[in-house]
Amino acid sequence: MASADLKRLPQVLKSIFQSIDAICKPDTFATQYSIFRGDGFQLITEPTLAIKTWLLIRGGLRAAFPGPLSKSVDAITGIAIGGVCHLAPNITESNGEAFLLSGRLLEELKAPRLTGFASVNQQINREFNVQFLLADDIIRRWTTAQSQMVPFLLQSFNQNEIAQATQTRQPTVAAKINAMGWNAIEAWMIYFTETIEKNSTLFLL
Hints:
Elements: H1 3-24, E1 32-36, E2 40-44, H2 50-64, E3 77-80, H3 97-108, E4 115-118, H4 122-139, H5 144-147, H6 150-154, H7 159-166, H8 170-179, H9 182-198
Parallel strand pairs: 3-4
Antiparallel strand pairs: 1-2
C-alpha cells in the first residue's frame, strides 16, 4: 500500500464507520468503533447487521482506493457473536466472549482467507465460515466502480436511482450488479440475518 494511501486509511475507515448507522438503521444501539495503529479497527454493532456492516467495510475500502484488482485495498475481519461483559467508551478496552472470539479468529486466520466467523454454536460456525469463504471469493472480484454501488444496494435503491446517484446509465448499473454477483450476496445476507434471529438464544445475545 502506497504511503499516501496509508495516511488516508484512518480517515477512510472513519468515514465508512460513520455511515453504517445511517445505512443499516440499527434498532437498539448505535454502532461503536475504534481505529488503532492506523490500519487496525474494532467495531460492535447489532448481530443482525453484521453482514451489512461487513459489506460496507469491504466495499468501502475497495471504492476508496481505485486500482487494479491485484492491488485492491481490503480488510481481514474476525466476526464474532457472543456476550459482552463490559462495553467501554474505547472499544479496545471492552471485554467479553464476543471480543475474545474475534481476537482468536484474527490470530488463526491464514491466507487466502480474509474473514472468519465464531459464536458458541459450532454447527452454525462451520456453516457460516464456508459461506464467508465463498463470499470472500466474490468480493475479491469487485472493481472500484462496482464497490461504489454497495451503499446504494444496501439501502434498496433501484437501478434508476443508482444510475442517477452515480451519474451513469441504468443498463450500465444492471451490468455491474450482475457482474458483482449481488443477487447471491443479497440472498445470503437474508439467510444469515434470519439464522441469527432464529438462534439468538444459542448466541447468548
